[in-house]
Amino acid sequence: MNIHDVAKAAGVSISTVSRAFSAPERLSPKTLEAVMKAAREADFVPNRAARGLVTGLTGNIGVVVPDITNPFFPPIIKGVTDYAGAARQSVFLATTEESANREQHLIDHLLQQVDGLIVCSSLLDDEALRRAAAKKPVVLVNRTSEPVSSVVIDTAGGMRQALGHLRSLGHTSFAFVSGPAGSWSNAERGAALLDEATTLGMQMRTIGPFAAHYESGVQAGDELIFGSDTAAVVFDDQMALGVLSRLRNRGVRVPEDLSVIGCDDVLPVGLAQPALTTVAAAGGAAGTAAVEILLERIRSAEELAPVSVVQHSRLVIRDSTGPRPVAGRRDPLDDDHATARPSL
Fold this sequence. Notes:
Elements: H1 3-10, H2 14-22, H3 29-41, H4 48-55, E1 60-65, H5 73-86, E2 90-95, H6 100-110, E3 117-120, H7 126-135, E4 138-141, E5 149-154, H8 155-168, E6 173-177, H9 184-200, E7 203-207, H10 214-225, E8 231-234, H11 237-249, E9 259-264, E10 277-280, H12 283-299, E11 308-312, E12 314-316
Parallel strand pairs: 1-2, 1-3, 3-4, 4-5, 5-11, 6-7, 6-8, 8-9, 9-10
Antiparallel strand pairs: 10-12
Helix pairs in contact: 1-2, 1-3, 5-12, 8-9, 10-11
């Protein structure tokens, strides 16, 4: 059977059958189910290549991320693939290995194979992103660049909540363990912390920049030990876990001697010792929003105005933050009883 037979069996038009496979969200649940039932009974499988000749679309979208091993990105990717799968779209995934040159090469290559791109935490300059968006629909995640559509996870807002939490516990100074130097998110988080620290009358010291890896947190832990800060806000949870491990091994008690806050809440940080206070990022919702915006632009007969969506974050308070030490920081090097404890 062909598409005409399916349309007749379902009691709908041929265009409605086509829409059921290319844009199912545009149909009512009742109509969609009638078409799918008729298609199943007829063993009908749409020919994507043939449909592409008519629509000019491939049915493919691309997703570009800096580092697939970074736990921040899988929830975003899942949000994209879940929605794309329901919309009968295939997803091409590429990783840039945190290289701007590689990112540019991948975008140029993918734009020849897909109908649109979702680019996460881009390292490219604004002009390069505008050039890409002029060729095919592009949506940025965790980066803004006018006039390109974007979905931003407002971890900066969560960072402000984090400082309010620390100030309520009596802390007057803290260290920001900075992430990658070229990261837009790192710049946003650092700026938000500095602005809020000024408002709250707190002193901020910046350590880094560091690559966003566990080992970087271990390195940062040593720098924190020799400071006078009573709290640390870390760029992301991977690094924060490294900080916790190093502090524990060096005899620094968390939170009794030093409070620690991470960001993202995508790892099982609630199982850390102590459980990590962190800023929760809505990665899955950001991925869903990004692909929804992208498909709307791919399927529109008219050029749509760019949109910017903000996904808000929130502070999740656990056990790694506590009151400021009354007598200031205890120096583990001066404690004869301080012993190294193995990390988990």
